[in-house]
Amino acid sequence: MINRIAFSKPQTFLMKLKYNNIRSYVLTALFVTLAVFVPWIFHQFHLAGATFLPMHIFVLIAGLLFGWRAGLITGLLTPLVSHFISGMPVLNVLPQIMIELSAYGLIAGILRQKYNLRPIWALLGAIAGGRIALLLAMLVIYLIAGQSYSPLGPEVNPFASFWSVVKQGWPGIAVQLISIPVIVWLAEKFAARDINDKQA
């Protein structure tokens, strides 16, 4: 019973990206582009990215659908590309966001690819793991630089910064928990139907 609730059949990925062909790089570039472009749209409508977390969605989906390599690379490149294109995230929070997003993609991919967890459980694990990685990054940055930052600005200490991020991001987490499992399910259903049509 527990196995049926927690685990899925090995593995229903659309494709585990191993970066030994051009398709892997094209798909990763597509996810990075979406993860940069959609937050930019949010900012045009004055919707706070730190509240709705649109950048996180595509990193998590990359890990859940295409494995830990895709999740890790998408999480690492997205904030860098976004910073150089739009200046967001700002430089003083860029390192911790890179660590946080990389952890999301990596953990989502590992839980789904290596342990065959269902998308919702892999997603929950990635969200928790990414937040822990963010707190550790904030602590290290505080010890090195003597300062702590959140998207809202300087904070007294890294724990205050972390709580500020978590408190502001609850709407985004809710959106992730509702939308991402549905997106992954639809993508896998579409891929399975396409494979069956080709085999028929």
In short:
The protein has helices spanning 2-6, 22-44, 49-52, 54-66, 68-86, 94-113, 119-145, 158-168, 170-199; strands at residues 148-150, 153-155. By secondary structure, it is mostly helical.
Number of distinct helices: 9
Give the beta-strand count: 2
Report the helical percentage.
over 70%
Total discrete domains: 1
Strand-residue fraction?
under 5%
Folded structure, characterized:
With 200 residues, the chain is mainly alpha-helical. It has 9 helices and 2 strands. The protein starts with a helix and ends with a helix.
Question: What labels would you give this structure?
Answer:
Arp2/3 complex 21 kDa subunit ARPC3, 200 residues, globular, two-stranded antiparallel ribbon, mainly alpha, 9 helices
Blueprint (SSEs and pairs):
Layout: H1 2-6, H2 22-44, H3 49-52, H4 54-66, H5 68-86, H6 94-113, H7 119-145, E1 148-150, E2 153-155, H8 158-168, H9 170-199
